[in-house]
Amino acid sequence: MPFPEGMQPDRTLQPMLSACDGESVRRDWARIRPSATCGIVHFLRESGFRHPMDQSVVTATEMPAPERGAPRHRLDAALAQVNDVLVGKNLAVRMAFACLLAGGHLLVEDVPGVGKTTLAHALAATLGLSFRRIQFTSDLLPSDIVGVSVFDRESDSFRFQPGPIFAQLLLADEINRATPKTQSALLEAMAEGQVTVDGASRALQQPFFVIATQNPLDMAGTYPLPDSQLDRFMLRIALDYPNAEAERRLLTGEDRSRMVGRLSACLTGADIQALRLQVRAVTASPALLDYVQALLAASRRHHEIRTGLSPRAGLSLLACARAWALLGDRDFVLPEDVQAVFTGVAGHRLIPSRSATREALAQALLESVAVE
Hints:
Layout: H1 14-18, H2 22-28, H3 37-46, H4 71-85, H5 90-101, E1 106-109, H6 116-127, E2 131-135, H7 143-146, E3 147-152, E4 157-162, E5 169-173, H8 180-183, H9 185-192, E6 194-197, E7 200-203, E8 209-214, H10 227-230, E9 235-237, H11 244-252, H12 256-261, H13 269-280, H14 286-301, E10 305-307, H15 311-327, H16 335-346, E11 351-352, H17 358-368
Helix pairs in contact: 4-6, 5-15, 13-15, 14-15, 15-16, 16-17
C-alpha cells in the first residue's frame, strides 16, 4: 500500500494497515501526524478496525480522559492556596512543601497563636490527604497513638482498632507535653512507615507525613525531645509573628477556620508520590555534592559544636535541596537551594558546646564554607 514519500508507517502497524482498505487510509492519512504511532492506532480502532489478535474495539468514548494538568502544575496551585490562608508565611509554607516532597517530617516550633495548627489543616485539605490530630498531654499513652487490640465477643478473638497514626497527615500538637515513652511511639512510624502492635507490623498508608508542634517558651510540665528524636524530623521551622500588612489582612479578613473548611484538594496522594519520584530524579552535580560534604565536615570540626551533622543529616539536606529545586521548576540543584534549606535541616541537629543558639551556629557554618 503506497504512502507519501518520507511518511512510511512504523513496522508495528504493517499488519493492521495491510488489513485495511488502502484507499480509505490514503484519504485520511493527511490528518494523521506521521510520527504519532499511537494516534494511528487510535484512528484505526475508532474506525472500527479489529486486528485478528485484538478482541476488542476501543472507541474514543471508552478511552480514559487525561488528568487535568500535570502534578507539577497542580503543585503551584496548592502552594498558592495554602499561602492564601497563611498570610505572609510564604517561606514557611514553601519549606513545609519541600519537607513533604523530600519524604521527611516537619517540626514547627513557635509560640501559640501564630498558625501552626492552621498550617496543618490547610495542608491536609489542599493535598487531599486523610487527617488526624493528636493533642499530646502528660497522660497520653502509646496505645492512644498507634491503636490497640480489643476483644470481640462475636468472633471470640482480638480485633485491632487502628489509632490516629494511620492517617496520611498526622498533627502531633504540643508533642513535648507527652512523656518520652509516648513520644517514642512515633519513632518507628516516622522512620519506617509502619507500627508494631502485639508483635504484628502494620504498614501505614502512603504518603505519610507528620507535622509536630511545640511551644519553646512555656516549658513547665514538658519533656524536651531528645536529640535522637529531633533527628527524625527532616526540617524544623518557625512561623514567627506576621508583618504589619499581613496582620492587617488577618484582622480585617475572613476567619481562617472557615477558609480552611472551603478549601478544595489540588493534589492527591498519587500526585505526591509522583512528585517525590521527580524530586529523587533532580540532578546534583559532583561540585554540588562537594559543597554539601564541605558543610558536613565543617560542622564536625567547629570549635563551638559538640556534635556535628550525621550522614542522615547530609541525606536530609540533599533531599530537601532537591525538593527546593523542584519547587523552583528546575531539574538540577544549585548551591542556593542548599543554603535556603540548610538552617531548617541543620539547626535542630547541631549540639552546641557553649551558649550559642543552634540557628546561629547553622548560619555561621554557611558563612564559613565557600562555594567553589
